[in-house]
Specification:
This protein has 152 residues and is α/β, with parallel strands linked by helices. The chain has one domain: RlpA-like domain (Barwin-like endoglucanases, Beta Barrel). The protein is 16% helix and 27% strand. The protein contains four helices and six strands. β3 and β4 form a beta hairpin. The longest helix has 8 residues. The radius of gyration is 22 Å and the shape is elongated. It binds zinc ion (ZN). The site of zinc ion (ZN) has 6 residues, from α2 and α4.
């Protein structure tokens, strides 16, 4: 019969290590983002940019009481916070990380025909000025969910 100490020693061979992941020392370019357990990688999305101007928003640009820019969710559009997404893919309130841009919250949604064109894999990021939106342009980048939105 094995002693408790001998059993523990035997088990040490079969129980996977739970310590911190050993990160390769190959160099600073090593991509470690996808190993973050707090985030869920959801693949690449096409990311476009918009602002509140008439060029970006068309008729909606003229429906703004007090100059406040309201998103489709009712929340005020904010630079560095607001992103539009297909709500059946990423529900309102979902916090995501967009590679190269950082965290955004789903508050708005692109037009249906845009969502259809990209089969739902589209993000439209709100910028505070038309210049900034133009400068960002359009990219295809990695996206992670940080926190799920609440389905209402
Ligand atoms: Zn604009």
């Amino acid at each position: 019969m094995l002693s408790v100490a001998a059993m523990a020693a035997a088990m040490a061979w079969t129980v996977p290590a739970t310590g911190p992941t050993i990160i390769s020392t190959m160099g600073p370019e090593i991509e470690t983002k996808q190993e973050d357990p707090e985030k869920t990688y959801i693949g690449q999305f096409t990311v476009t940019a918009y602002c509140s101007c008439e060029i970006c928003c068309g008729k909606w640009a003229n429906k703004r009481p007090n100059g406040i820019i309201y998103t489709a969710s009712g929340a005020e559009a904010k630079n560095g916070e607001t992103v539009g997404a297909a709500w059946d893919v990423l529900p309102v309130g979902t916090r995501i990380e967009i590679d190269g841009l950082g965290e955004r919250i789903v508050q708005d949604k692109p037009a249906d025909w845009i969502v259809e064109r990209y089969e739902g894999r589209i993000l439209d990021v709100y910028f505070g000025s038309h210049e900034a939106a133009l400068e960002y342009g359009k990219h295809t980048v990695d996206v992670w969910i940080i926190e799920d939105g609440k389905e209402e």
